[in-house]
Amino acid sequence: MAWQQRVGQERRQYVRVRPTADYEIRVEVRTGEIREGMLLVDLSVGGVKLLLSSTIESVPIGGEVELRLQAPRDPPCEIRAALRYRSVALGTCGLQFLEPSEAALRLLRHAVGDLLERGSLA
Question: Are 25 and 70 in contact (CB under 8 A)?
């Protein structure tokens, strides 16, 4: 797959990109009945890095949430994700996508490809 890339000794499998001012990606997290818009730090086909929020602070490491992603070229989609890390010091958290649908993969591939074309590597 064109989006996969091994970087040094890191475990990351996918190219990461950052959103740009002219290419907005909206992320909403749902845990139970709580829904909250989140700020995206970076994105890959395999997961996202978000700024910490009170909603994510209550999720245990390994816990699952529902994400709703919206990017310019595709309709919004929902993706289950597992919280892999939370860094209070950096104010960020990382979530790994779990079994994304074809529609979700299409959105992710389009978003990553479009941002790569803009030179927006993370």
Answer: yes
Q: How far apart are CA 8 and CA 81, in angstroms?
A: 25
Tokens found for residue 105: 């993969």
Q: Which of 72, 61, 58 is nearest to 29 (CA)?
A: 58
Q: What token pair was written down for 92?
A: 């960020």
What is the rounded distance in angstroms from the CA atom of residue 29 to the CA atom of residue 36? 5
Kindly indicate the confidence band of residue 13, based on its pLDDT and cuts at 50, 70 and 90: confident
Q: Around 41, how many Cα atoms within 13 Å sit in the side-chain half-sphere?
A: 13
What secondary structure letter does DSSP report for 4? B
Closest CA to 79 of 55, 105, 56: 105
Give the tokens for residue 3: 């989006």
- Predicted TM-score (pTM) of the model is 0.85
The predicted-structure confidence for 34-70, as pLDDT tens digits, reads as follows: 889 999 999 999 999 999 988 888 899 999 999 999 9
> What is the CA angle 16-23-77, rounded to 5?
75
